[in-house]
């Protein structure tokens, strides 16, 4: 989740947790999960695409002979 002033906390924090409001707005419905397939950026990094421009997830495999994370991709790097 991106930074926001519109946060409803539900616990796991010392800050105020508004559980009644959380339960009021939550929808307890199941939906079909989507499998996101990674895209290879190079021999050691796979990127999982996200519709949120502020978020990126990468998986690195650092094996003998593979390049290191030096210069690895970041969401703000073109």
Describe the structure.
This protein has 78 residues and is mainly beta. The protein is 9% helix and 13% strand. A three-stranded antiparallel sheet has the order 1-2-3, with no helix packed on it. The chain starts with 18 loop residues before the first helix and ends in an 18-residue tail after the last strand.
The percentage of residues in β strands lies in 5-15%
Identify the strand order in the major beta sheet.
Answer: 1-2-3
- According to DSSP, the number of beta strands is 3
The biggest beta sheet is recorded as: 3 strands, antiparallel
Rg value = 18 Å
Order of helices and strands: HEEE
Query: What best-fitting shape do the alpha-carbon axes yield?
Result: elongated
Q: How many DSSP helices?
A: 1
By helix and strand content, what is the structural category? mainly beta
Uncertain runs are none
Give the helix proportion (percent range): under 10%
- Overall average pLDDT: 80
Distance between the termini: 22 Å
Give a nutshell description of this structure.
This protein is mainly β. Helix content is 9%, strand content 13%.
Describe the secondary structure blueprint for this structure:
Elements (H helix, E strand, L loop, with lengths): L18 H7 L13 E2 L4 E4 L8 E4 L18
Antiparallel strand pairs: 1-2, 2-3
Descriptive labels:
78 residues, mainly beta, three-stranded antiparallel beta sheet, 1 helix, 9% helix, 13% strand, elongated
